[in-house]
Amino acid sequence: LVRRYAKELHVDESTIPNVTISSEEPSIARGGSIISGDGADNQTDQQLEHRYRPIEQILHAEGFNPSDEHHQKELFEASLRATTNDVVLYLHGNTASRGATHRVELYKRLRSLNYHVIAMDYRGYGDSASLSPTERGVVFDALAVYQYVTSITKNPVYLWGHSLGTGVSTHLLSLLTEMSLPGPRAVVLESPFNNIREEICAHPFSKLYRHLPWFDYTVSKPMYNNMLRFESDQHIAEFRQPVLILHAEDDLVVPFDLGYKLYRKALDTRGKSWGPIEFHRFEKSSHYGHKHICRAPNLPEIVVRFFHNYRDAQY
């Protein structure tokens, strides 16, 4: 059963017998070093213009190949720098990749609201490096991408985490605060849990086992001891940015109660002068479940209002 949970959470099964995961992690999923978060601020607009060719020049350059990784990178960076839109960095949940259908639905919804959307895959997901994901590893992957994005654009950046990505988001924000680095303007937590231990106990595939006396010892504790904790109920009190929680009452993967529990914890532990925390529930009758809040007719109004309210706020 432990191995079944390990597979679901993408833990390297070879570590399970010794109940340890090495703390030695590469900084990012693809080689390289952590990028300075103030890279864009240390360069003049003229210097940045020389560093990046305009999109039109790239597309019409002799030998341009949209399948070439170098050309893709140059086009991506030129597009990011050229946009006048605010940027949303999306951190996805546990299954599949950034290309999952329900995720693409959300990207399109956000694009229709004139947000520039960037989605990433952590190590071990999609086409990222085939390293075994750990909490520390995926958080550092998110940190590397966040710093990369903010080194290119000066536009406001928002963070959006879904499911497991909410745990990555709160840990990332805590880390940015610890490192005294500028964070995003605000964060959206879609279908969040309070910590991985309670989420494991509430997950559908634990239903037959969660009441057995050995469940906590053989399943929950090994995950916790392996530093797979995703303690959003702790991290949410370690950063000041405004928080919007979205949760559907009929979510069977991450029960609504866990998201509301995180909200109540935030109300009790966050500073009074910090960014506000908002909670929006979606009724069971809407049938959005775990993945389809993106289809809510009122989602654009909720998101635009939230981002607009805190776009220029300082906390």
UniProtKB/TrEMBL annotation:
GO terms for cellular component: endoplasmic reticulum membrane. GO terms for molecular function: monoacylglycerol lipase activity; phosphatidylcholine lysophospholipase activity. Residues 85-209 form the Serine aminopeptidase S33 domain. SUPFAM superfamilies: alpha/beta-Hydrolases. It comes from the Eukaryota. Pfam families: Hydrolase_4. One of its GO terms (biological process) is monoacylglycerol catabolic process. InterPro entries: AB_hydrolase_fold, Hydrolase_4. This is Putative monoacylglycerol lipase abhd12. It comes from Anopheles triannulatus.
